[in-house]
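Hi,

I'm pasting everything inline rather than attaching a file, because the server keeps stripping attachments. The sequence lines come first, and each chain or strand is labelled.
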Amino acid sequence: MSIQKLQNHVIVRNERFIELAENLKPHLNETIVEPTAIVEIKSNKEVIHGWKSERIAPASTLAENQYGKGDSVNLDFGDHQVGYLSIKIRPEGSPPDAPLKLKLTIGEMPVEVVEPFENYNGWLSSSWLQEETIYVDVLPTEITLPRRYSFRYVKLEVLDTSPKYRVVFEKVECCAVTSANINDIQTISHQDKELQRMDEISIKTLADCMQDVFEDGPKRDRRLWLGDLRLQALANYETFKNNDLVKRCLFLFAGVPDDKGKVPANVFVAPKLMADDTYLFDYSLFFASTLHDYYFATNDLKTLQELWPTAYKQVEHALERLDENHILKDSADWWSFIDWQDGLNKQTPSQAILIYTTKQVIRLAQELNAPESDLLKVSIEKMENAAKTHLWDEQQQFFISGSDRQVSWASQIWMVLAGVFTKEDNQKLMNHLLKVKPEVGIATPNMYHHLVEALLVSGEKEQAVTELKTYWGGMIQDGADTFWELYDPNNKDFSPYGSHLINSYCHAWSCTPTYLIRKYDL
Amino acid sequence: MSIQKLQNHVIVRNERFIELAENLKPHLNETIVEPTAIVEIKSNKEVIHGWKSERIAPASTLAENQYGKGDSVNLDFGDHQVGYLSIKIRPEGSPPDAPLKLKLTIGEMPVEVVEPFENYNGWLSSSWLQEETIYVDVLPTEITLPRRYSFRYVKLEVLDTSPKYRVVFEKVECCAVTSANINDIQTISHQDKELQRMDEISIKTLADCMQDVFEDGPKRDRRLWLGDLRLQALANYETFKNNDLVKRCLFLFAGVPDDKGKVPANVFVAPKLMADDTYLFDYSLFFASTLHDYYFATNDLKTLQELWPTAYKQVEHALERLDENHILKDSADWWSFIDWQDGLNKQTPSQAILIYTTKQVIRLAQELNAPESDLLKVSIEKMENAAKTHLWDEQQQFFISGSDRQVSWASQIWMVLAGVFTKEDNQKLMNHLLKVKPEVGIATPNMYHHLVEALLVSGEKEQAVTELKTYWGGMIQDGADTFWELYDPNNKDFSPYGSHLINSYCHAWSCTPTYLIRKYDL
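And the predicted assembly:
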C-alpha cells in the first residue's frame, strides 16, 4: 500500500472562502447515553470476527460490583455512539493509598475490546485503536475523558489499585454528539421491514459521521474526504437536509486549492484548515459533482456562482490527461481512488467519472449561462465516442481498462452511470455484468452504492433491491448498528489495512441506502 | 509483607482543627525548569542498578531532531524535580493524518526510564511507576500533563505517528513546585566540602517533599506520615523555618483521631482530609514528639495548648501496653514501625521511644503547668528501671528485645536517645555497638539518622561524621540528587517492596543531614 507525500506542496488559501466556511460551523447536539448492559464477549466461530457479545446483566447493576487488580467489565451502550465518555468512580475499602491505574478499551465491534491491540500489525497507524490508560490520583472522582470516541462497547480494566482498596464504577456515560438534527427527520414506514431497518441504520450512520464537518468515519479518519462528502450529501438531502453543512464543506475544499487550482482529496480542519497532500483524480472531480448535487437540492445560485470557477477548474485539469484519442492516459503511479479492489485498473472507471462529472458541470454551466458549456459538450462527445471505440470490447460485451484489457465491475458500473450508452444498452450491460461476474469485483460499500445506482438508472429496480439486501442486509445480519467502511460477505475479516481491528464500522460512504431507498422509492 | 486494613474504623473529626489546618494551606512556589541534556542510559555494572546516564547532546539541540514510530529520546533535567511537565510538539512532513501515540516514562533514577515497567513485580502498586501513554489528535500542540511527577529523567517514546509525518519536540519543560521558600534559606559555607554538599542535598530533598503538606516522598507515597513529619520538621527548623506548615500538619493529624483519641500513622488530604486505617505505636507517639519540637522551635504556646490533649492521649494509650513489669508487651501482630530491617523485634526500641517521647511530653506539661507531669515522671522512672532490669543483658552489654533476646542496633540506638543511661554509659554502649556490629542492623535512612544522633548525644561526634559520610556520602557517590528512601551500601538493589523501581529516591526521612550538621555544628 503506497501513500502520497508531496515535497513542494503549494496551497493558495482563499481566506474569504475559509471565513465563509467558518461562519457555517455547526452547533453540535449533545445527548447523554448510558450503557444498557454488562456483556461478555465470547468466542464464537459462527459470527463475524469470531466474537459474540452476550448480555450477562443489566448495566444498572454495574455499581453493585467492586473491581480490584486484574478485574474487568465490558459495557454495551446498546447502539453505536460518537462522543465523550465520563466515569464516576468510588473507592471501597481503606482510603486509596496508591493511584488507580485504569485501562479503557473502546470498540465499535466486540472484536475490538477482546483482541489485544498489542498484536495489531496493520499498516495504518495503531494510534487509531481506541484505548486509554489513565492514572487516577484522587478518589472518589468523576472523570470526563477529553478525546472523542466512536463505539458501542467499552471495556474497563483495573490494571492496579493497591491491596487496600477496590473501585466501584458508579456511573459510566457518553455525551453523544452530532450536528445532525435527529428530531427533524421524516421517518418512513416501509412495508419491507428489511428496507425500513436499512433506512434507519443509514440515517444513524450518517448522523454519527455528521460532526464539525461530514467526517468519513468518526473512529477513523475523522476527516473530510471528497468521495465520502459527495455520498453523505446525497443521503443528507433525503433526510436531515442540513444543507449548510454541505455548503461549509464545499467552501473548505475551495479554500485550499493548490497553485494549479486543484482541490485536495481531503482536508484537515484542526488546529486550522489544511489541505492534505493527497490528490485523487476522481475525488477532485467529485467536488464538481457535489456542487452539482448541492445546487439542484438547494437552488443556492449564489454559492454556485462563488464555487463555479473551482468546480470548472477540476474538470479542466482532468481533461488535460486525455491522450490524442480522448482516452485518459493510464500509468502505474496514477492516483485515482475508484475502489480498494486489489489490482483494479483505474483508467476506464476514471474516464467514466470524467464523463459523468463533465455532464454535471455542463448542467451547472447552463444554469449560469456560462460560455464553457459549449466547449465541454464537445469534450463529452469526444470522450464518449472514444470510450465506445477504444474501451468497449464488442466480443466480451464489456468495457475494458488498461493495457491488459481488464474487465472490472467498476468500469461497467461507472460507464452506465456516465450514460455513455442508452438506457436499454445499459440495462443489457448490467444484466451481462451480474451474469458473468467478472473476477475483478467490488471491495467497498462506496462501489456497491454505485452498483445499485447503476442498476436503478438502467431500470433494474428489483436487482437493485436484491443487491442492497445482500450487501447492506448482510451487514445487518452480521450485527451492524451503523454501516461499515468495509464488508465482503465472502471474507468477513477483509481489511485493506492488514487488520479488521482498524476498519471503521461507521463509515460515511456506506450511508447511502437511505438515499437509494428514498430517492428511487424502493 | 502485611498491611493494616481496619473494618470498623471510627474517626471523630475535629472540624475546628481541620479548619485551622485548611487556613494554613501553603502557597506553592513555581519555577520553570528546562532539561539540560539529551542522555543515553547505558548498561554499566560499576554503577548503582547497573545503568549509567551519559550526556550525548545539550538539550537545546532537541528541536533539531525528528521522531517517528519507534524513536525515543531521554531527557535529563540536571537535578531532581517535582512538578508538572509540558511538551510543545510540532509535526514534520505531511499534515498529521493519524493521532500521535506518545509514551512518557518518568524517573528519578536512570534505571526507571530503561527497565520496562511491564516486568515490575513488587508488592506495592504498579500504579506508582511514573508513565503515561497519551494520544494527541491535533498537532501542533502544547500539552501540559495534569499529574505531578517526581523525576530527573524523562523518556519520550513515539509509539506511533503515521508513515506521513514525524514529530519535533520543540520544548519540554517542568513547572517545579514546592511550598519551601528556597531563596529564604541561609546557606552554609562548610570547610568540609562533602558535608557542604550533603547539606545542600538534604535541603533539596526537604524542599521537594514540601508541598501542600510535608510529604514522605513526592514520587511515592506523596503523603503525610508522622514518622517522616517529625524528621522533616527538625530539618525545617534549621533551614526553611516554614513553621506554619508543621503546625498545619499537626492540626491535620489532630483533626482525625479515632474514637479512642489515637492519631493515625498517616493522613490523606485529597479529596478531603482522611485518616488512613494504619496505626503505628511509634508513629502515634511521634505526634507528641513533633509537637514538642515545634513548641521549642516556635514558642507557640497557643498551639501547644490546643494540641496538648491530643499529645497526652498518645502517651496515655502507649502506657496501657506496659505489663506488670513496666515493659511493653510484645506480640507477633504488633504494629510499631521502627525500621524496615528484616526480623527486627520491636519491643525494646518501642520501649525506648515511649521513654523518649514521655520525657518530651513531661517538658511540655511543665510549660503548661499541667498536673499530668508528676504522673508521667513516675512512669518514666518505672519504665527506665524496668528497661535496665529486664532488657539489659549485662553479659553482652547490650539491650535485648523480645523473647528471643534479640540484640539489634535499633534497641541500643533508641535506648541511648531515650537517655536511660548516663552520657558516659551511652558513649560506652555506642562504641560497643560499632565494634560488635550485631547482625540485626539498620535498613533505612530513618534509622541511620537515629544512629548518628545517638552518637552525637553520647559525645561521639567524629564517629557521627564518619557514619554520615559513609551513608549519605555513599548515596552522593552513587549519584543522589536528593536523598533516597532506601540505601544499603552493601546491597544497592535493596528494596523492601520487591523492586528498586518502586523505591522513592527523594524521601523525607533522609533529609536530616542538614539538621544534624547545623544543629550539632558538625
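The first helix of chain B runs from residue 15 to 23.

If the labels don't parse on your end, tell me and I'll reformat.
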